[in-house]
Amino acid sequence: MEFFQSVVDFFGSPLFRLIVNLIYLFGLVLYISIAKWTYSDAKRRGAMAFYWMIVAMLFPVAGWLIYIIVRPPEYLEDVRERELEVRAKEALLASGDLACPACFKPVDKDFLICPSCRRRLKKSCPSCDRALDTSWSICPYCQQIL
Ligand SMILES: [Zn+2]
Ligand SMILES: [Zn+2]
């Protein structure tokens, strides 16, 4: 009975109350951080941030899990960055300037290799040294069979 008594004493002790209070405090901090995190994450992804924060607060675990599943997959700034990149590539193509097919940096029409990413762009004719398309089988300048 002595063991049982000490267990009862423990549950009535200030230490136990302290532990319980700490657990509550931890839960509260976790709850607030999840709400805050949901709000800022939703905002960065262009979702309805306030609405999702309310959902996460009303249903602390389930609401947050649902948000993780249905949230937009990308951050807004990533979407914007990709759009800018695509537009830059389109502008480059539209301008008629040649671009490296791998890194899209501008290249000259007789570059043999891309100076930025070292991708092979052309081969040089063994006879007249001009830059030729890698798929050509004859040099159109000097008729050298390749
Ligand atoms: Zn390149
Ligand atoms: Zn040639």
Write the layout of secondary structure elements.
Blueprint: H1 2-12, H2 14-44, H3 49-58, H4 62-70, H5 76-94, E1 122-124, E2 131-133
Antiparallel strand pairs: 1-2
Helix pairs in contact: 2-3, 3-4
This protein binds zinc ion (ZN) (2 copies).
Describe this structure in words.
Keywords: Membrane, Transmembrane, Transmembrane helix. This is DZANK-type domain-containing protein. Pfam families: DZR. With 146 residues, the chain is mostly helical. A hairpin with a 6-residue loop joins β1 and β2. The chain has five helices and two strands, in the order αααααββ. The relative contact order is 0.06. α2 runs antiparallel to α3. The longest helix is centred in the first third of the chain and has 31 residues. The protein is elongated and about 105 Å long. The chain has a two-stranded antiparallel sheet with strand order 1-2. The protein folds into two domains: 72 residues, no CATH class; 57 residues, no CATH class. One zinc ion binds next to loops. The site of one zinc ion has 8 residues, from loops.
Provide a compact summary of the structure.
Keywords: Membrane, Transmembrane, Transmembrane helix. This protein has about 150 residues and is mostly helical.
Which structural category do the helix and sheet elements fall into?
mainly alpha
C-alpha geometry: elongated
Query: Whole-number radius of gyration?
Result: 33 Å
Described by strand count, sense and barrel closure, the largest sheet is: 2 strands, antiparallel
Strand-residue proportion: under 5%
Number of strands: 2
| Neighbour order of strands in the largest sheet | 1-2
Rounded mean pLDDT score: 88
Helical run tally: 5
* Poorly predicted runs: none
Query: Secondary-structure element order, as H and E?
Result: HHHHHEE
Specify the helix fraction band. 40-55%
Small-molecule binders here are:
zinc ion
Query: What is the total domain count?
Result: 2
What gap, in angstroms, lies between the N and C termini? Answer: 99 Å
